[in-house]
Specification:
The protein has 183 residues and is an alpha/beta fold. The protein has one domain: HUPs (Rossmann fold), CATH 3.40.50. It has 6 helices and 6 strands; from the N terminus they run E-E-H-E-H-H-E-H-H-E-H-E. A 6-stranded parallel beta sheet has the order 1-4-3-2-5-6, sandwiched between helices. The radius of gyration is 15 Å and the shape is globular.
C-alpha cells in the first residue's frame, strides 16, 4: 500500500480502479465493509483499490471550535486501510478553496480527471462537495453520466456503530473522455 499526501505525482498504476471517498476516522466495521467492496470491485476491474480521505478533517477548517478529535492519525489510518486491502490511500491536503468545490466540480476534478475512477463504492449516507450539497443520488447521476459504476453499501445494525476493526487494534486519539490523460 502507498500513502500519498496529494495528487500531483500519483503514479498511473493507482488510476483507473475502484475509488471510495470519506474521512474514515477510526476505521470501524462499516468502513471495513466499504473497503472490502472497493477491493472486490478493483480486483474485478484489474485495477487498484484507492481510498481518498482528507487531511485535516474538513470540520477542522470549517468549524475548528466544533471539530471532532481525530480517532486516528493519518499514518495509522492508512495502515488500517491497507490491512483491509487498499492499494493506495490519498490523504488530500484540505483547505478552504478545496472545500468550496461544488459537487459536480469535485467529481470532475478529483474522481474523473485525477483518479480516472471506473467504479466508486460509497456508503448510503455519503455527502460531498461544498456544504455537503452532493448526496448519494447526485453521485449516482454523475457516475451514470460519466460511465462510472457506483456500488452503494447500506448501513446495517451490525455496522452502524463505531467498533474499531480488530485486525491490529484500535486507533487512539492523536490530539469518459473527460478522464485525465494516462489515467
Amino acid at each position: 500500500m502507498r500513502l500519498f499526501r496529494d495528487l500531483d505525482n500519483l503514479p498511473d498504476e493507482f488510476c483507473r480502479g475502484a475509488v471510495t471517498i470519506g474521512n474514515f476516522d477510526g476505521v470501524h466495521l462499516g468502513h471495513a465493509r466499504i473497503i472490502e467492496r472497493a477491493v472486490t470491485a478493483a480486483r474485478r476491474l484489474g485495477g487498484p483499490a484507492v481510498v481518498f480521505t482528507f487531511d485535516p478533517h474538513p470540520a477542522r477548517i470549517l468549524r475548528p471550535d466544533r471539530a471532532p478529535v481525530p480517532l486516528c492519525g493519518t499514518d495509522r489510518k492508512a495502515h488500517l486501510l491497507a490491512e483491509l486491502g487498499a492499494d493506495a490511500v490519498i490523504a488530500y491536503p484540505t483547505d478552504k478553496a478545496f472545500l468550496k468545490l461544488e459537487p459536480g466540480e469535485f467529481f470532475e476534478r478529483i474522481v474523473l480527471l485525477r483518479l480516472g475512477a471506473r467504479t466508486m463504492v460509497e456508503g448510503s449516507n455519503f455527502r460531498f462537495g461544498r456544504g455537503h450539497l452532493g448526496n448519494i443520488d447526485a453521485l449516482g447521476r454523475l457516475c451514470g453520466e460519466a460511465g462510472v459504476a457506483l456500488e452503494i453499501v447500506s448501513r446495517s445494525r451490525s455496522t452502524a456503530g463505531s467498533s474499531p476493526v480488530p485486525a491490529s487494534g484500535p486507533c487512539w486519539p492523536t490530539g469518459k473522455s473527460t478522464r485525465r490523460d494516462g489515467c
